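During the reporting period, we have paired protein sequences with backbone structure tokens. One record among many follows, to show the layout:
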Amino acid sequence: MEGREISKAVVTRLPRYYRYLEELLESGVERISSNELSVRMKVTASQIRQDLNNFGGFGQQGYGYNVKYLYTEIGKILGIDREHNLVIIGAGNLGQAIANYANFEKRGFIIKGMFDINPRLIGLVVRGIEIRGVDDLEQFIVDNNVQMAALTIPKTKAAEIADRLVDAGIKAIWNFARVDLNVPDDVVVENVHLSESLMRLSYRVCSMQDQEERMKNQEEGKHEKEREHRH
């Protein structure tokens, strides 16, 4: 794996593998074939084998995959066998929802601090974390060895805060602000555009409805022709 560039598509699928393997573990399943995993995940068995071969394979001919071993190894690949210190910038509804999601800690993401510019929010405590003003943001990042930041602030402030985060040594930004951030190449940004996701959902629903309408019209047209033919 060292020195090899893994495609974004493969990296996108890894958390899904991890989630399904976790469900299998909880169900007491000890081993699974790529064919069985493919049925659950709606990904072809050859795609699964190809994806996992990027990291060494993990399977045995005639046996399949040891669920616990594969789950552990994918966790290592994703880096969630380590702890990652995280701060949330923006303590409104979305920021507080993220802070309240206990599953992040299970995955190794430790929320060290929350920050906001709204004086009504500063001083409030969310799941044991006090919301701070942004004045001491840089010092807090250094003092608490923070590597990641979640940005849940309006896009007008996002670029300025992102620059401050980068200058303070942040290496990864989880960006919920509706703006593309200009950061150095050694800083990773994962954009989460909630409205875009909702629009994709809308497109798919409307496409299905349009297709159903077309099929219905075709069926009605066919029946109409049959009636005309009979008369």
Summary: The mean pLDDT is 89. The domain at 8-78 is CATH 1.10.10.10 (Arc Repressor Mutant, subunit A).
